[in-house]
Specification:
Elements lengths: L2 H20 L9 H19 L4 H15 L2 H13 L3 H28 L3
Helix pairs in contact: 1-2, 1-3, 2-3, 2-5, 4-5
Length: 118
């Protein structure tokens, strides 16, 4: 199948799913939906790449689906707003759990794929 079509279909699905997550209420000022999307996206992407998925499935899920789903630009904007609002405690917490959680999710995906040779 045409990779452009696969990326477009995956991107549409990922974007709709991201919209659903964006409607989750913040907890203690932390944008919960963005946080969850970034952690889930990191984990899913690591499973995809460490299992060596290639070709059409990679275009559909990796480039399209997860590209439309993950929200680094939103994370950056929300973090900037916290800085602007002088909400340093929330900024530090959100940044630490997002980056740390994302790294932990990638490590988990790596371990799953190497232990079970996916």
């Amino acid at each position: 199948m045409d990779p452009v079509l696969l990326v477009g279909v995956g991107g549409a699905a990922g974007s709709v799913l991201r919209f659903v997550f964006s409607r989750i209420e913040p907890i203690r000022g932390i944008p919960t939906g963005t946080f969850l999307v970034n952690i889930i996206g990191s984990f899913a992407f690591s499973l995809l790449v460490f299992s060596l998925v290639k070709g059409d499935l990679y275009y559909l899920i990796g480039t399209g689906g997860l590209g439309g789903f993950t929200t680094f630009s939103t994370f950056s904007y929300e973090t900037f707003r916290m800085l602007e609002d002088h909400d340093y405690r929330t900024l530090a917490t959100y940044s630490a759990i997002s980056v740390g959680g994302g790294l932990a999710a990638v490590a988990a995906g790596y371990l799953i794929c190497t232990w079970w040779a996916i």
